[in-house]
Give the backbone structure.
Amino acid sequence: MNPIRLLTSSELCLCTCFLLVLIYRGWSQLFYDWTVSYSQLAPLGVDKQVIVINGMFPGPVLYASTNDVVNVNIYNYLTEPFLMTWNGVQMRKNSWQDGVQETNCPILPGQNWTYSFQLKDQIGSFFYFPSLLLHKAAGGYGAIHLNNLPIIPIPFPQPYKDYAVLIGDWFNADYRDLRASLENGVFLPHPDGILINGLGPNQARFEFEPSATYMLRISNVGLKTSLNFRIEDHPMLLVETEGSYLIQQYYDSLDIHVGQSYSVLVTAKNQANGKSYYMVASSRFTILEHSGIGVIHYPDAAGDPVGPLPLGPGLSNYNFSIEQARSMRWDLIASAARPNPQGSYHYGTIPITRTLILENNVMVIGSKRRFTINGISFMHSDTPLKLLDYFQLNEESKYAAAAALPSSATSVVDAFYRDFFHIVFQNPLLEVQSWHIDGYNFFVVGMGWGLWDESKKAGYNIVDAVSRSTAQVYPLSWTAILMELDNLGTWNLRSQNAENGYLGQELYIRVKGVWNWLDEQSDISARDEAPIPDNVIKCGRAADL
């Protein structure tokens, strides 16, 4: 019998590290079947055809953890083509699954398609929504909750419970009528109200146990309205936004712009003394103030809250909003999806390879009003760009440089892998803009009033700026971001304001490796970018290929 040999300390350390790597890389396969259909609902008392998922509005919460592989089989029982996009999910190396018009052919009525993607190196609060034909105005959205791997500690005590809180403006008109108005150059009217979790005033209820701490994962899933979120007599500890942990600070209220998500911790009172409390999501920067009202309910509460709603900031107080945004900082010490601290990525030391200045506007093209980026309103091809590239079908595209005259074009910015972009969003209009980039997070390094110029770089936050995927730009102001293009694929940069995006305020960033810039898409290694899915839907000029 061979004697048992004890491991040396170095061998034991090596085995432990190997085990930790295995645990870190662990993942699960998750499978969902979602049926997308219509249902007659009346969230604000007016009957309307609403898009539901498995009969639910909002749709089911998609629960997952870092590195899980998610498979969502969507059955389209609408009367129109359908796509779902996953707001803030980066789809690492896999824009085939992004669910927007230039990466995917739509799921036709009566058919189904399975999205399959890995939640690679991500945690946080996000949401999904339908991306075609203004379907979002009829619902079809839901929350995404991505949890940490067990091996990576969260930078706060484990909450007693998580709640999804989806807030957004709501229009009683049918989405088809709203769409027709947009196509005729008539912009969206003022909303009819604000919903909380798809419900009207005092209908959304959140049960609190005394002294327990809750995580509220809040997303603005509306079409165009910035919202202020607050809870009566309950301060909120802000801990995360769109996959990044923040320096923890208490806020009495939060401005949340269209497409943005935040996670806050709220500790219940020791004794509620028989009271319930208001939860409020009120419109910002609008002519008329609308409020969505929910209820925080304690076990001994006698009924619904009474008295006035808790006050928020002034309806047109932009300074409050921009100063609050500037107060948020990236937590350099916390670990998020990976074991190493967030701050180990020193974005401020990376040389900028390209600067883009993107100015939004509204212009008349032909005889109709369209939204533009640098004078160009996006024009969709009859075939998704992703398929055109894969099958080497020529398509004229135009970089969104300033156009002498407003025009329509398929705007594409070509870039190399690991380019480091400096993008300035310039807003000359009187409404808040909200910008999102699929496939990436970026660092919001600066924002300010007036016109941007080179001197503004001196005031950039190059140490602990917030990393996120959706950023606001205030009226007559600018916002600057830094972004490393480390995710190969074709990625949508869009206005999150639904009418702006529907009428052309978007472009695509096409990222390829220097080593395969001249290669055909079909020759690119799966190590660099995911291959075309076996179940890909083909349409347009690629339909018979």
The chain has a mean pLDDT of 92. Helices lie at 9-25, 175-183, 318-327, 385-390, 498-502. The first strand starts at residue 29 and ends at 41. The chain has three domains: 29-147, 161-327, 347-542.
